[in-house]
Design goal:
about 60 residues; mainly alpha; Erythroid Transcription Factor GATA-1, Chain A
């Protein structure tokens, strides 16, 4: 049985096989659209800024 996944860009069903060189995408086009979104910083991973980390560390020290 072959596993099928949804293309992250267009949601088309894609077979997850070694012969699909674009997996998990359905095509080169969808792969490039996703890459462009990353390049334009449309996807972000939430993180604390350095200032927030410094402030948190200072609060931790005063609690001791």
């Amino acid at each position: 049985m072959v596993t099928a996944v949804d293309c992250p860009t267009c949601s088309k069903k894609v077979e997850w096989t070694e012969t699909n060189k674009y997996r998990p995408f359905c095509s080169e086009r969808c792969k490039q659209i996703d890459l462009g979104a990353w390049a334009e910083e449309k996807y972000v991973i939430p993180a604390k800024s350095e200032q927030e980390n410094i402030g948190q560390n200072a609060d931790d020290q005063t609690a001791l």
